[in-house]
Amino acid sequence: MSGQNKKVVIVGGGITGLSAAFYMQKEAREKGLPLDVILVEASNRLGGKIQTVRRNGFIIERGPDSFLIRKKSMGVLAQDLGIEGELVKNATGQAYVLVGGELHPIPGGSVMGIPTEIGPFLKTGLFSLSGKLRAAGDFVLPRSNIKGDQSLGGFFRRRFGGEIVENLIEPLLSGVYAGDIDHMSLESTFPQFYAVEKKHRSLILGMKKTTPKQLPQKDGHGAKKEGVFHTFRNGLETIVEAIEQQLEPGSVMKGVRIDAIEAPGMVGEKTILEMNDGRKIEADAVILTTGHEMAGRLFAPHGLLQDLREIPTTSVATVALAFPEEHVVQDKEGTGFLVSRSSDYSITACTWTHRKWPTTTPAGKVLIRAFVGRVGDEAIVDLPDAEIEKIVLADLGRVMNITGKPDFTVITRWKKDRPQYRVGHKQRIAAARAELESKFPQVKLAGASYNGVGLPDCIDQGRAAVKEVLEDLFD
Question: Which residues form the Amine oxidase domain (predicted)?
Fold first, then answer.
């Protein structure tokens, strides 16, 4: 490494940090930039929440299991890595909501819970007649006069009433954040709904006009062939492995933690990162992709980013259960179900993984993935594995006929892991970045705590940070 090269340190080896490191090195190679990139990861593995278990022919995800195809950055990254041939789409099928002990099909024509076809909503048993009449109020209600951010729950209750929110919209929209819809920021999670209301007034009419018509693709048996999600044939960790293989030798440091950051004394001086093993790195730029709590701790001695530490987090757990197919009898066709918060169940959702992702499961086997834990209901995550398995099996047994014990179970706890994007989140993050810019302009924040929790959102943030750093260093 030349002493003349600029040094960029990327802190955190999740998908944000990995994509930032990959694209930073790619830019340096292609443009001949005098740049050294170091990725520092506190644990002994890369990938963060992306963790794939490959066992007895099963492909089991401990964290995320897929990503939306319409969000392009993950697919583009796969192409740039040369692994796009490993991508597979989910099998489509009916999804349900569990309400009052019964699985109700999600009505056809619903877009994130908003009806675009009236017939299926009139026929569904998800809502009472009074609930359906209240939801029809969306056709005549005026636009909101609320200025600035507002809660998802407040926004949708005003348009549709409580019943459609509790039984459909809340299970669909709050799941990815494991959050409370009545505190979640509309502006930071689903701003498109506000834009639709502003332009069209009625959400139903607006979504009907703006949602592209889907021409169902059929196989020879009349079933839809393709879905809207991608994963990799051998699990999501495929992309982590591919990035690690293609990063420059010696550019990754695992098992070491950044414990302190020293401010540069004057413009042009380097930022000094102190590691827990006593070593120091002098950096021309830093991309910090850790969670907001770690960012707050690192900058506490400088009196910065302390408002970030107030962003709440939620604990969740995933429970994957493998069975012989003769031990699970389901009378519903489909790929899984969500659970209404008003229902008396501990699980919050369930995927019939062997149906949604056939490549994950050997012939003659069934793979079920259940989720537990959300805001206000996190104690279950701390229970022993045997207790969690018992609770999940009891809940599943009320929905399908399960005989015998699983071949094996994989339980993964994500403690204080899901950042909650509460009302005012966008402004809070903008203020934090402005704070940092005033004293540490060389440090950029990126990751799930800030501008989106999905895998493509994190990749977008990593790439945006790369662009900012390169402009600062070389423009």
Answer: 15-470
- Provide the residue count of the chain: 475
CATH of domain 313-419: 3.90.660.20
For residue 14, what are its two tokens? 């999740």
Beta-carbon-side half-sphere exposure of residue 83 (alpha carbons within 13 Å):
23
Q: Global pTM?
A: 0.94
Domain locations in the chain as residue ranges = 6-46+235-311+422-474, 108-210, 313-419
pLDDT in tens, 387-400: 999 999 999 999 99
pLDDT of residue 175: 78
Phi, psi angles (nearest 5°) of residue 349: -165, 165
How many CA atoms are closer than 13 Å to the CA of 361, on its beta-carbon side? Answer: 22
Architecture of domain 6-46+235-311+422-474: 3-Layer(bba) Sandwich (3.50)
Smallest CA-to-CA distance from 353 within 83, 117, 52 is with: 52
Which pLDDT score, from 0 to 100, does residue 267 have?
Answer: 55
